[in-house]
């Protein structure tokens, strides 16, 4: 089968969406399908119709179809003009899209995380040629994504458009059971969590242990509320009071907001700035070095709809490091991981519980090593993309 994947993420790298698109594409390819990727995202080019020629990535052809030149302020995800930008880009580029359908003999189109208004121009062409369509839905709108929250009409409109996506396509792949439940059961649906090519994470690193008895915790996340960064303050205070020598690396978006302001205030208040490294976002090779020299990897999450509906790509990636992962019992995490075996899974916001579990890890090197190894083994089984090969083929067959 010839399959076209349409994505708003850059391909093959750049964002979590890039990882998802690339991995799904490789899954299709390994199942014997011909795969083409059409990538769309905001840029500074003035022309809608400018494309680059086909390129090849591991046997996957891809093309960049550039979108309208709206200012970056207006192309923010979930803004009205982001919908208009993508819709008009595809509308004006319909001849290019249709030529791909015809020249490549496309039999199936997959849309990565698009709403109904964004996919409509391509769905219209697909129906004209009798081509099946499916949507890969990986997020659900949360009021915190929008200025004024529930009072913002775009929140309700986006939610409606995402639900309406279901009625435009022939089937839905969802990243979580929460999203799966949002759609009717009369059409074909399946769940594929965050998946990766685990073989690409086997880079021959040797995990290093610190010789000076300093414990290193690497926090992967932002200083935004959804990632629960304030847990770091509590954990550090607990550990320092008990006499542990510890350092925390904060890796991620450290952009200013109310939570980050409070975080910095507490760091100054408790005089712990000397044990916190604000590293920001790191290139993959440098990031790997920091992760492999850490003792514990920390990925806390708050319990709200935006998090419950998603599944972090970071979870399988961090498990593949082979160090103990500490995360939160939010969404589908406990469907795939056992607390105390594959990872430490704490209650969201229960800093006391998580701190106790981290201290138990600090006190037991055998437990740390066992959990790191078991977590990595579980990632290879559950989050390796080939694990879903048969289920995906059955899904396609039943469309």
How large a portion of the residues is in β-strands, by DSSP E? Answer: 15-25%
Number of strands: 14
CATH architecture of the largest domain: 3-Layer(aba) Sandwich
Q: What is the end-to-end distance? A: 13 Å
Shape: elongated
CATH superfamily of the largest domain: Glycogen Phosphorylase B
Written account of the structure:
The chain has 399 residues and is an alpha/beta fold. The protein has helices spanning 16-30, 80-92, 94-103, 116-128, 153-168, 177-182, 231-241, 258-269, 284-292, 305-308, 314-319, 333-336, 351-362, 365-382, 389-397; strands at residues 2-7, 34-39, 55-57, 60-64, 108-112, 132-137, 171-174, 188-191, 215-220, 246-251, 276-280, 296-299, 325-328, 344-346. Helices cover 40% and strands 17% of the residues. It has an eight-stranded mixed β-sheet with strand order 3-4-2-1-5-6-7-8, sandwiched between helices. Helix 4 (116-128) runs parallel beside helix 5 (153-168) and helix 7 (231-241) packs across helix 13. The longest helix has 18 residues, at 365-382.
Strand and helix layout:
Elements: E1 2-7, H1 16-30, E2 34-39, E3 55-57, E4 60-64, H2 80-92, H3 94-103, E5 108-112, H4 116-128, E6 132-137, H5 153-168, E7 171-174, H6 177-182, E8 188-191, E9 215-220, H7 231-241, E10 246-251, H8 258-269, E11 276-280, H9 284-292, E12 296-299, H10 305-308, H11 314-319, E13 325-328, H12 333-336, E14 344-346, H13 351-362, H14 365-382, H15 389-397
Parallel strand pairs: 1-2, 1-5, 2-4, 5-6, 6-7, 7-8, 9-10, 9-12, 10-11, 12-13, 13-14
Antiparallel strand pairs: 3-4
Helix pairs in contact: 2-4, 3-4, 4-5, 7-13
